[in-house]
Design a protein that fits this description.
The complex is a heterodimer of chains A (244) and B (94). Chain A has 244 residues and is α/β, with parallel strands linked by helices. Chain A has six helices and six strands, in the order H-E-E-E-H-H-E-H-E-E-H-H. In chain A, 47% of the residues lie in helices and 14% in strands. Helix content of chain B is 9%, strand content 38%. Chain B is mainly β and 94 residues long. Chain B has one domain. Classes of the chains: A alpha/beta (244), B mainly beta (94).
């Protein structure tokens, strides 16, 4: 069985063969849980957590390891559980795969990557470094502050308009009342006109225009005088020739 | 150190729950189902203890082995759910 120092050495060797450099604890940002070993490489951060034989027999220690792994998964690109070979048959890789974790089996002969850890970017950026915020972020914050002050000024200018809008709302109510009254009147006029149209045919068809009254028939005259068109013409003769 | 490209072997693990009578060592170890069927009750402590044993048939020699014994085998790769994944015997280790 390997000691903890041997395990560290074997892991460092394994990670360095893949281009990773071991990080010192002061090189990490403050984390809720600290990994047993941390490495930085071209593809990002890799954390390793040890699960030894004693931890398997201690329920509290085992729960602690599980909680640590859960907390650290969002802080690095690769997360590995390093176990000695004696307890490897009890570690279910299906569970690790579901949680995007890898498994390293540490043996006398070295380290075997039984399950590779998938690369997953950290949720809140890289946990390495620390210190002041980058300049780009500071510039963006300054721009946002300027925009906020402009918006505040515009809001102050808009406030007086709110009173006017409320008075317009009152006018709108009046307009609605007038509109409803107008509709009622319109309906009433429609009803009246329809009732007038209904009554008119009941009174019968309109009387035909009467012919102009015919001149009285001459009485006591011979029959050729009756309906003789020449009679009127002859009666007018001589009147036209009179001097005006 | 790398694994061969040959298809690995997946051997199913069998879980057996065994009831132990700690007061009478002569009582045969029964499976939990058999104990419940014979005695009509659940085994309760402190007299009875239930152990769950994980075993599998080793594809190398067809012997029944404990899952923990797989750690001693150079062909062992990993456990995945209720299966042990190991290298085929035709390939020499490493």
């Amino acid at each position: 069985m390997r000691g903890m120092g041997d395990v560290r050495e074997a892991l460092e060797k394994w990670f360095s063969s893949r281009g990773f450099r071991q990080l010192r604890p002061e090189e990490l940002l403050e984390l809720e849980e600290e990994p047993d070993m941390a490495f930085e490489g071209p593809d990002g951060l890799a954390f390793a957590i040890f699960l030894d034989g004693k931890t398997i027999g201690d329920r509290g220690a085992f729960t602690d390891i599980v909680m640590k792994a859960s907390a650290l998964r969002d802080e690095c690109h690769f997360l590995y559980l390093a176990v000695p070979k004696t307890i490897a048959p009890f570690v279910d890789t299906e569970v690790l795969k579901k949680r995007s974790m890898g498994l390293l089996i540490v043996d006398e002969e070295g380290v075997i990557e039984a399950l590779p850890s998938p690369r997953r970017p950290p949720r809140r950026g890289q946990a390495v470094g620390g210190g002041p915020l980058p300049e780009e972020l500071a510039n963006r914050i300054a721009l946002l502050e300027d925009r906020i002050s402009v918006l505040e000024n515009e809001l102050m200018a808009i406030k007086p308009l709110l009173n006017e809008i409320s008075s317009i709302r009152g006018l709108k109510e009046d307009f609605k009342a007038l509109s409803s009254r107008l509709e009622a009147l319109s309906r009433r006029i429609d009803m009246l006109s329809s009732s007038v149209l209904v009554r008119a045919p009941a009174m019968g068809p309109p009387a035909k225009p009467t012919a102009p009254p015919s001149p009285p028939e001459p009485e006591g005259l011979p029959s050729f005088f009756k309906d003789n068109p020449w009679l009127e013409i002859l009666a007018r003769r001589g009147r036209d020739e009179l001097p005006a | 150190m790398s694994y061969p490209l040959e298809a690995t072997r997946m051997t199913p693990i069998r879980r057996i729950s065994v009831v132990l009578d700690v007061e009478d060592p002569m009582t045969p170890a029964l499976t939990l189902r058999e104990f419940t069927r014979l005695f009509g009750k659940e085994p309760k402590p402190p007299r009875y203890r239930v152990l769950t044993i994980e075993v599998l048939r080793c594809p190398e020699d067809d012997n029944v082995v404990l899952v923990s014994e797989c750690a001693e085998c150079p062909r062992f790769i990993r456990r995945s759910g209720d299966f042990i994944i190991c290298r085929p015997s035709t390939v020499s280790a490493y």
